[in-house]
Every structure is written in C-alpha cells, then in structure tokens.
Specification:
With about 400 residues, the protein is of the alpha/beta class. About 20% of the residues lie in helices and about 35% in strands.
C-alpha cells in the first residue's frame, strides 16, 4: 500500500481502489487496469457548484492544469488509434473543456483514416445562425449547449461515423441527449463512438447503452476506466459564486473554428497577430525563456497548436486555458485567479498559473482582446487569432 498527500491506494486483485479526500467529502474510486496511470492523468478538486461537489482534473487536457503540448498530442493519438473507421466522420467536442480535445482527436482521425473528417463542437456562444438543436447538461454551472446547423459546411447524408468527445463521462446523460438528437440530424449514420480521457460508467451501464443503440455500431473508447462514488462529509451545500457564467454568451466569437462544422484539414491553422495586426511568430520569443501559452474559454485548439509548435522548436513551454467553471482552491487547484470579463458578462478563472513562466494569452477575437482584463492583470503579452486563409 502506498500513500500520498491526497489519496490512499489499495491494490485489489487486478483493479485499484482509491480514496480521495476533498473539502466537503471524499471520492471512492475503483480503477480498471490500464496502460495509463491514474495519477499521470488525473488530479481532483471541489466545485463551487450545488449540483455536483467534485471535479476530475485532467493533467493532459490543457484546461485547469498546465501541461506539455506533447502529452496532450499523445492523448489525441491514443484515443484516435482506438477506433477503426470507414467513410466520412463527424467529431464533436463538448464545450467548454473538451473543445480542444475533440479537435485534436478529429485531426488525428483525419490523419489516420483519411476520407472526409469534420469537426464541430457544442457551444455556449449565441449568435445569429440557425441551430440544429440544443441540450441541457443538468449538473453543469452552465447547463445549455447549442449545436449549430452544419449543413452548409458538409453533406449530412454522407456522415457514417459520429464521434462524441468529452474529457470524462460519469453518467452518460449529456452524451445521450446529443446522441439522440444527432441520430435524427444525420440520416445515414452507421457508427457511434463515445470518446473520453476517463470513463466512470460501470460495465453494465455501458452494456445497456450498447443495447439501447443496437441499430448502430456503438462503442466506448477511453484512456482510463473505472467507477466512483462521492460521499459528503458535510450537509453544507456550496452555492455558485455571484456572476457565475451560467447563461448563454453573446460575446463576439469566430464562426470558422468549428461551431458550424469545419473540415479537419482546416484545424491546422495556428497563426496569431498582435493588436496592430502584425504576425506573432516564435521568432518574437526568447528561446532561453520559459513560457506558458494560455487559451481562452472555448478557444483552446489553435493556441494549443501554437504551443505545440514552440515545443517542437525547442522552447520550454506549457499550455493551459481560462474557464468559466468555479472551483475551490485546494486539492489539485494550487492557485486561482478570478477576473470579471465584460465580453462574457461574468467571472472567469485561470487556475494553477506557473509563477516561474512568462504567460502569453491568446484570444479568439479582437473584441475579446480589447475587453478582457486578464493580460492587463498579468502585465503580459496577448495576441489574437489571425484570419483564415
């Protein structure tokens, strides 16, 4: 038996059991054997959320914990390699946390399988375009997800494979809603894949889903599998903070990054400009300096690609992104920067910012750059996503 500050581990035949103490209770985990260590993939924290008190923090997602771009890429490749696909595919990342993960998986599927691979995402951004449908994620601080119509950017009749990507699956309720609506939206669908870094559903629950969707080739793919339960140690319910970003967002956003569907080939763009529209290049940076590239909210994949290119060029770089999820400090959250973002009309957060690195913040639009106070608070460089070519 080994022990660490935040957990206890007990070897149980071929599975491992863990107890994770949190501020308002403890998680009990049973993890199946895997090529991936749980502690290489996960840390844990407590939410400021009355609907769900705990949070699984991925160490390879690039959201709340800074990580190496190369390790993020390895997770995309590992998940894509679990699937055998024929025909045209649509990959959907679930906002906010899995927009980058979904795009990375789509890019790897496109490289591996050929054919036509498309990417889209759920979003909380509301803009003037037709919706395919919307769903509600009941446990979330921001329950409504919008899925915009993609018919102008792909032939919906030709999509054979639907790949839904989230960072973790606990009950399957959110992906069930999306799957049911997408089956109606994609008339000739043949296969459905639920893809995640971690799948916490029991084997029986997974089998039930496969039976429910027996008219399709339905499968699960994850780097880690197990089961969990959460036991409260206090009756006190922690409510949302004031001005939590709970509703839809009317901030100016790009429509060509996946919200209305995009060919996976187009995801490779990672060009950025400064406020004067001058190109921002790796040559602008000091090879001897340590950097952390910071994506913003749903805008994760293009900043990740920039960070990845820096790492490949020999720079010492980590990647993370801001988010709307309110999380208590403690556990896997060592630091927390809270700032009011006028473009989103709510508080946003940056967690676990490394103090020994120079931050560079990457915004999706000039409007977000001009209004967001984060780069001013950190007194750091900020750049804006360049126009598609």
């Amino acid at each position: 038996m080994t022990q660490s500050l935040f957990c206890q581990e007990v070897v149980m035949q071929s599975r491992c059991q863990y107890t994770i103490p949190l501020s308002n209770g403890h998680l009990k985990l049973i993890v199946e054997p895997s090529a991936y260590s749980m502690f290489a993939l996960l840390d844990f924290a407590s939410r400021e959320n009355p609907n769900r008190a705990y949070l699984f923090l991925s160490k390879v997602l690039g959201k709340y914990i800074p990580c190496l771009p190369s390790e993020m890429r390895e997770s995309y490749q590992a998940l894509a390699n679990m699937m055998t696909l024929a025909g045209d595919s649509l990959v959907m990342g679930v906002a906010e946390t899995a927009t980058g993960l979904g795009a990375g998986v789509a890019q790897e599927i496109n490289t591996k399988c050929g054919g036509n691979t498309f990417y889209t995402q759920t979003t909380r951004h509301s803009f003037n375009s037709s919706l395919a449908f919307s769903i509600n994620e009941k446990h979330s601080h921001a329950p409504q997800h919008l899925i915009y119509d993609m018919a102008d950017n792909m032939d919906l009749n030709r999509i054979d494979n639907l790949i839904l990507v989230d960072d973790e699956i606990s009950t399957g309720k959110t992906l069930t809603q999306i799957t049911q609506r997408m089956i109606d939206y994609l008339p000739n669908l043949k296969t459905v894949h639920w893809v995640s870094l971690v799948n916490w559903m029991t084997e029986k629950t997974c089998s039930n889903f496969i039976e429910d969707y027996s008219t399709f080739d339905f499968s699960f793919h994850s780097l880690l599998r197990g089961e969990f339960s959460f036991n409260r140690s206090s009756e006190k319910i922690i409510d949302f903070p004031k001005l939590t970003a709970a509703g839809l967002n009317k901030a100016a956003c790009r429509h060509d990054t996946g919200r209305m569907g995009i060919k996976a080939d187009a995801l490779k763009k990672n060009k950025f400009v400064d406020e004067k529209n001058a190109p921002f290049l790796s040559s602008n940076l000091n090879i001897d300096e340590r950097y952390v590239i910071i994506g913003t909210a749903e805008f994760i994949f293009a900043p990740f690609l920039f960070a990845e290119a820096l790492e490949k060029a020999g720079y010492n770089v980590l990647f993370e992104s801001t988010g709307r999820s309110p999380i208590l400090q403690g556990g896997g959250i060592s630091s927390k920067l809270k700032f009011y973002d006028p473009t989103h009309q709510a508080y946003y957060y940056l967690y676990n910012l490394p103090e020994d690195r120079t931050p560079i913040i990457m915004y999706e639009t000039i409007e977000q750059f001009e209004a967001c106070p984060l780069h001013k608070l950190l007194n750091c460089k900020a750049v804006i996503f360049g126009e598609m070519q």
